[in-house]
């Protein structure tokens, strides 16, 4: 299929029908991001005015078995659960879609924030909804479908949370059940596979939805949006987590595997057509007893930049039954902050620099600057930075978002390079 593909870079922050922005991780020099941003930016304004229309030949509606609980605090549709597990139909568009535009735009994100009458607390906990917009012959076909992770299926079957989500932990009937859950945490079997963070198309055409747990790598059909099964990594690198936003091109899949036992990160690469990640190199942490959270990371043509934030993974918080203000993490300003630069070809860390304390979810863009002889003189990496204020994590509780009254109450962030 000749398609347009965009990866999710902010799937955490908005519900599926509002996630109509762009893959900003593409390198500026490739021109891909800017070109598509301009094209899609015009459509975006139109898409906001689209409405569902009845298209009997194409509708595939499966009524939701549950009625969403009424919450008087909910005042924004972005934070309400999807009403149906699955829907597809043609949308009415104001204006015109260019006839040359043909392709499918995929996004995922949290879309269901309750099971039965239990409402989740945090934005990141929502069970994943996969959304598509298919452009062809001036028409726009949209659809969404729940991603059938083990966590989602178990919750639907048992009418309760059964896996450890971002902030939610299964309620245990007794102490022994809690101990059993802890033992399963060590093996990773109790961790969620709720792939609500990103969608990538591998160089071999497979489309994979992702989250921060490695087991939450799920292969989907980009046409039917069906969940086809788990993407099984065939290597023996182990570990339970990885960056939620790998950098994926037609030639490679690059990601970071944080090492919680020996604080550091493995930088790994996977070629199209394989399920085997190979180690490019390793970065040891410069500060702290645990690696910093790596939700995303920047890559340039020749280098991988490994960010070491003072917001670090925390084993104690992983074990807790109730969330802390920083959830699975802890803030260690005394451990300082660093950026490590690894050569993709050699795997060697060419430099590690201390930088001001920072908090970011998403790196946006990265590229190299060269002198007139073609030698790399600098690496530019942009990110959305929250002024080293970790409160953004707790501010993304649904209760806070649903109380939105038109005033921006979230902590400020800015673009830094
Ligand atoms: Fe994200």
From TrEMBL:
Would you tell me the protein name for this molecule? Uncharacterized protein
> What note does UniProt attach to the cofactor annotation?
Binds 1 Fe(2+) ion per subunit.
Q: Which residues form the signal peptide?
A: none
Provide the cofactor list for this protein: Fe(2+)
Q: What InterPro entries does this protein map onto? A: Carotenoid_Oase
Keyword Metal-binding annotated: yes
Q: Which GO terms describe its cellular component?
A: chloroplast
Which GO terms are recorded in the biological process aspect for this UniProt protein?
A: carotene catabolic process
A Pfam match is RPE65
- Annotated Fe cation binding lies at 245, 295, 362
Listed A to Z, the keywords are: Dioxygenase, Iron, Metal-binding, Oxidoreductase
Belongs to which family?
Answer: Belongs to the carotenoid oxygenase family.
Which molecular function terms from Gene Ontology are attached?
carotenoid dioxygenase activity; metal ion binding
Instruction: Name its species.
Output: Gossypium barbadense (Sea Island cotton)
* Coiled coil (UniProt feature): none
């Amino acid at each position: 299929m000749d398609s347009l593909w965009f990866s999710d870079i902010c799937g955490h922050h908005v519900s599926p029908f509002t996630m109509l922005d762009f893959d900003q991780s593409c390198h500026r020099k490739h021109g891909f991001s800017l070109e598509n941003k301009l094209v899609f930016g015009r459509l975006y304004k139109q898409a906001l005015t689209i409405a569902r229309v009845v298209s009997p030949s194409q509708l595939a509606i499966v009524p939701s078995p549950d009625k969403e609980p009424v919450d008087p605090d909910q005042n924004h549709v972005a934070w309400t659960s999807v009403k149906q597990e699955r829907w597809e139909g043609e949308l009415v568009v104001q204006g015109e879609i260019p006839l040359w535009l043909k392709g499918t735009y995929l996004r995922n994100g949290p879309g269901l924030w309750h099971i039965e009458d239990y409402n989740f607390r945090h934005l990141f906990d929502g069970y994943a909804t996969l959304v598509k917009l298919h452009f062809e012959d001036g028409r726009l076909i949209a659809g969404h479908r729940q991603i059938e992770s083990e966590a989602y299926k178990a919750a639907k079957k048992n009418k309760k949370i059964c896996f450890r989500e971002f902030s939610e932990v299964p309620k245990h009937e007794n102490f022994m059940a809690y101990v059993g859950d802890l033992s399963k945490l060590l093996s990773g079997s109790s961790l969620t596979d709720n792939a609500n963070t990103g969608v990538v198309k591998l160089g071999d055409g497979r489309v994979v939805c992702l989250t921060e747990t490695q087991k939450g790598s799920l292969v989907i059909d980009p046409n039917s949006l069906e969940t086809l099964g788990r993407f099984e990594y065939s290597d023996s690198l182990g570990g339970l987590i990885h960056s939620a936003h790998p950098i994926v091109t037609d030639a490679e899949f690059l990601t970071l595997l944080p090492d919680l036992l020996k604080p550091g990160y493995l930088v790994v690469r996977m070629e199209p057509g394989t399920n085997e990640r190979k180690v490019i190199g390793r970065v040891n942490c410069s500060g702290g007893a645990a690696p910093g959270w790596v939700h995303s990371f920047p890559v340039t043509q020749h280098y991988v930049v490994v960010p070491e934030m003072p917001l670090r993974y925390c084993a104690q918080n992983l074990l807790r039954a109730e969330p802390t203000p920083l959830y699975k993490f802890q803030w260690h300003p005394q451990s300082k902050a660093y950026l490590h630069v690894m050569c993709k070809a050699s795997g060697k860390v060419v430099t590690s620099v201390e930088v001001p304390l920072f908090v970011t979810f998403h790196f946006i863009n990265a590229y190299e600057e060269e002198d007139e002889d073609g030698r790399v003189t600098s690496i530019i990496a942009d990110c959305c930075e929250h002024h080293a204020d970790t409160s953004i994590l707790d501010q993304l509780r649904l209760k806070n978002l649903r109380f939105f009254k038109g005033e921006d109450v979230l902590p400020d962030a800015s673009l830094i390079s």
